[in-house]
Specification:
Number of strands: 7
Radius of gyration: 24 Å
CATH class of the largest domain: Alpha Beta
Order of helices and strands: HEEHEHEHEHEHHEHHH
Shape: globular
Strand content: 5-15%
Structural class: alpha/beta
Distance between the termini: 71 Å
Helix content: 40-55%
Length: 285
């Protein structure tokens, strides 16, 4: 039997521990914002009030990819069948910018119709938990993972495979998954070759990992732009942000900037525009 003094002491200790404990995070509803970041540690969605993105009209040289992604996303938002999408290719060619711009376009035409949820690469194993939270929601949700890839003995891809095309429950009807990657098969070529050279059955050794990209019904390839397209991107940005200064030889400066970076891409163009705006004392609002 516990005497009264001990009971009082235990009650005071319990009360102190309760006061020290952090307040529980309030449950975020999917209708509270148009964009969220998924935090696997706390299993919660954090609203994003201001999304970092560019207007879709400023994206040059990717009109085919743009049309296909818009069409796929509109069908999904309208309740019709649509495919998970993998946007793969060269760095800085507008893959993630296009996803965010399409999301903005959809919600501009039909406000609140589509929620964008970003999941970080390292949180992919928690994807089934996120889908469980979203399964009962009426709102359409686009889960987006930027720069997705797998290396070495990374087993996280198994969680993604089950979500995309397998598992008992399958992907909820109100959820679609878009990912960007520099790799078409989401893994380095030398890793694929090593698997093939060291395995007893080379085809089976790589099939499990390479087949992950097959779970994406829509593949969109992105490649470095030519010089004319690069100039079109620069001039589009300059016009949009009011940076057409007669003292600036826009094409000459933009060309020199690309040479110093060793590439021509939308990202390189944006970096030049930021430098130009800074020199002209203008903001990019």
């Amino acid at each position: 039997m516990i005497d009264q003094d001990t009971k009082d002491l235990l009650a005071r200790i319990a009360g102190a521990l309760e006061r020290m404990a952090p307040e529980p995070e309030p449950e975020i509803r999917i209708t509270e914002a148009d964009a969220f970041v998924w935090h696997a540690g706390g299993q919660r969605l954090e609203p994003v009030p201001n999304i970092n993105r560019v207007d879709i009209a400023l994206l040059q040289g990717i009109s085919r990819q743009q049309d296909q992604l818009i069409d796929n996303t509109k069908r999904f938002t309208n309740g019709f069948p649509a495919n998970n999408a993998l946007l793969w290719g060269a760095r800085g060619t507008g893959k993630s910018s296009l996803v965010k711009a399409v999301h903005a376009l959809i919600n501009k035409e039909n406000p609140g119709s589509l929620a964008l949820i970003e999941i970080h690469r390292e949180d992919i194993p928690s994807l089934p938990t996120l889908l469980t939270k979203l399964r009962s929601e009426e709102r359409r949700c686009l889960i987006f993972c930027d720069d997705l890839s797998f290396d070495g003995e990374d087993e996280a891809y198994k969680s993604l495979k089950a979500v995309l095309d397998g598992g008992v429950e399958g992907r909820p009807e109100n959820v679609i998954f878009y990912a960007t990657s520099n790799r078409r098969h989401l893994m380095p070529r030398d890793m694929i070759e090593n698997e093939r050279s060291s395995a007893i059955n080379p085809s089976e050794a790589t099939e499990e990992k390479v087949s992950l990209s097959d779970r994406f019904g829509l593949w969109l390839g992105f490649h470095n732009v030519d010089q004319n397209t690069y100039f079109e991107i620069i001039e589009g940005y300059a016009k949009h942000y009011g940076l057409n200064d007669p003292s600036v030889d826009l094409r000459a400066e933009a060309n020199e900037w690309s040479v110093t970076r060793g590439a021509r891409s939308g990202r390189v163009a944006w970096q030049y525009i930021q430098d130009l705006a800074g020199r002209l004392g203008k903001t990019l609002d």
